[in-house]
């Protein structure tokens, strides 16, 4: 592996891409420490320490690399861009125009990317407006010093504009990594934010009542889940596909046998993020209500991370979103039509509609395994660390799956480029 890494840096083109990616990651981390206009970073740190760990902002704060609870210009992180991308992808099912653009190839993809950028800025304005408006009240309620001293419409507007501009800059940085660097830009920035929080989280565990014993348990669970994620993420159900011989011009093409890979976890970590986001809504709504009300107390006692209701709904939502998102990303009818167009067929299955039904049957059975895998990996660390009194944060199943998944994909991308240059690569 070390020889392959040295070979990657000896290749001028690949070395330039790797250094460019690292430079963007450094810029992203530096931006998380730049406070928004009129924000007192001293007051913010005191409020964050007084507020403690927990609450519905933890997932967003994890994705932003800790920038959200620092009220920095990168407070929203990459989440608006991720949300916009998912929304545009889901709208393909609802809006025929979007599905038509998706099928048009590069020009249609460019148009969808443009819509994603506009939606990202819109979500950035909306989220930053809500976040800044509530910074001195609900989010940091009970703090001695306000994060934005003497807040007025001018100061709030300037902070909103700065955070929205930060969202646009992060979106641009992510696209730069995708175009000129190594790997997917969004994934790399999320990976950077989670890794940046890991040492601090582990130090907090050591300083807590859990002590070194708790830190050892955390690392053991982390390594065990990493092994499971690496194994499952590379598992596939391979469906054999044969292509009939065709005459194109004066050449005979086709006649080959290949396979159609169906991953165990085609939905990746998206269902877990969806489920976590939906379960944040009741907590967020309850924070605006009267704390002595019955419905607020019910939410706080049953829909928190320590409640049985929370874990049950969490598991059901992960299952539901896994099947829903898989059905959108893996369009069996489109795959069957493409196979028929190029003369491909599954042995023993007729082309066209029967092929689509067979692929749907196989994908649903595989998705059951993927849904169980996602639920177990997401719930086991949460339940274990909650019982031990350890704050989950970076050590949750969601963050571990993101870290391992992004790491595997990035290594595969580097390995593919090394193999193009006749090097052995990372994976042997």
From TrEMBL:
Provide the family line.
Answer: Belongs to the SecY/SEC61-alpha family.
Going by the UniProt record, its keywords in alphabetical order are: Cell membrane, Membrane, Protein transport, Translocation, Transmembrane, Transmembrane helix, Transport
Q: Which GO terms describe its cellular component?
A: plasma membrane
The record's subcellular locations are: Cell membrane; Membrane
Give the organism the record lists.
Answer: Peptidiphaga gingivicola
Q: How does it assemble?
A: Component of the Sec protein translocase complex. Heterotrimer consisting of SecY, SecE and SecG subunits. The heterotrimers can form oligomers, although 1 heterotrimer is thought to be able to translocate proteins. Interacts with the ribosome. Interacts with SecDF, and other proteins may be involved. Interacts with SecA.
User: GO biological process annotations for this chain's record?
Assistant: intracellular protein transmembrane transport; protein targeting; protein transport by the Sec complex
Which ranges does the record mark as transmembrane?
A: 18-36, 67-94, 115-134, 154-174, 186-206, 212-232, 308-330, 366-384, 390-411
Q: Which domain of life is it from?
A: Bacteria
According to its UniProt entry, the function of this protein is described as: The central subunit of the protein translocation channel SecYEG. Consists of two halves formed by TMs 1-5 and 6-10. These two domains form a lateral gate at the front which open onto the bilayer between TMs 2 and 7, and are clamped together by SecE at the back. The channel is closed by both a pore ring composed of hydrophobic SecY resides and a short helix (helix 2A) on the extracellular side of the membrane which forms a plug. The plug probably moves laterally to allow the channel to open. The ring and the pore may move independently.
Topological relation to the membrane, as annotated: Multi-pass membrane protein
Q: What is this protein called?
A: Protein translocase subunit SecY
Q: InterPro entries this protein is in?
A: SecY, SecY/SEC61-alpha, SecY_CS, SecY_dom_sf
């Amino acid at each position: 592996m070390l020889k392959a890494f040295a070979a990657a840096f000896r290749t001028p083109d690949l070395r330039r891409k790797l250094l460019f990616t690292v430079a963007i990651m450094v810029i992203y981390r530096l931006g998380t420490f730049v406070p928004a206009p009129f924000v007192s970073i001293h007051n913010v740190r005191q409020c964050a320490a007084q507020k403690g760990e927990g609450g519905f902002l933890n997932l967003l704060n994890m994705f932003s690399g800790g920038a959200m609870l620092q009220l920095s210009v990168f407070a929203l992180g990459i989440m608006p861009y991720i949300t916009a991308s998912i929304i545009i992808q889901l709208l393909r099912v609802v809006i025929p125009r979007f599905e038509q653009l998706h099928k048009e190839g590069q020009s249609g993809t460019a148009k969808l990317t443009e819509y994603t950028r506009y939606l990202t800025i819109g979500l950035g304005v909306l989220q930053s407006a809500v976040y800044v408006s509530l910074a001195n009240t609900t989010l940091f309620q009970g703090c001695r010093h306000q994060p934005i001293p003497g807040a007025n419409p001018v100061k709030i507007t300037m902070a909103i504009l700065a955070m929205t501009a930060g969202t646009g800059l992060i979106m641009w940085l992510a696209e730069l990594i995708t175009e000129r660097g190594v790997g997917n830009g969004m994934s790399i920035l999320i990976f950077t934010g989670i890794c940046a929080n890991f040492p601090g989280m582990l130090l907090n565990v050591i300083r807590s009542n859990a002590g070194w014993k708790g830190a050892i348990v955390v690392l053991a669970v982390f390594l065990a889940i990493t092994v499971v994620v690496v194994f499952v993420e590379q598992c596939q159900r391979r469906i054999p596909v044969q292509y009939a011989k065709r005459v194109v011009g004066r050449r005979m093409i086709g006649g080959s046998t290949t396979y159609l890979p169906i991953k165990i976890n085609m939905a990746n970590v998206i269902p877990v993020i969806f489920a976590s986001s939906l379960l944040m809504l009741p907590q967020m709504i309850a924070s605006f209500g009267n704390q002595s009300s019955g419905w607020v107390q019910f939410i706080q006692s049953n829909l928190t991370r320590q409640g049985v209701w929370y874990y049950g709904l969490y598991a059901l939502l992960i299952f539901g979103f896994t099947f829903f998102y898989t059905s959108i990303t893996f369009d069996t009818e489109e795959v069957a039509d493409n196979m028929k167009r190029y003369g491909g067929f599954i042995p023993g299955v007729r082309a066209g509609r029967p092929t689509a039904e067979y692929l749907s049957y196989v994908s649903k059975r595989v998705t059951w395994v993927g849904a169980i895998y996602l639920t177990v990996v997401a719930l086991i660390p949460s339940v274990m660390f909650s019982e031990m009194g350890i704050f989950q944060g970076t050590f949750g199943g969601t963050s571990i799956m993101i870290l391992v998944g992004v790491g595997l994909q990035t290594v595969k991308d580097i390995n593919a480029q090394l193999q193009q240059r006749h090097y052995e690569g990372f994976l042997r």
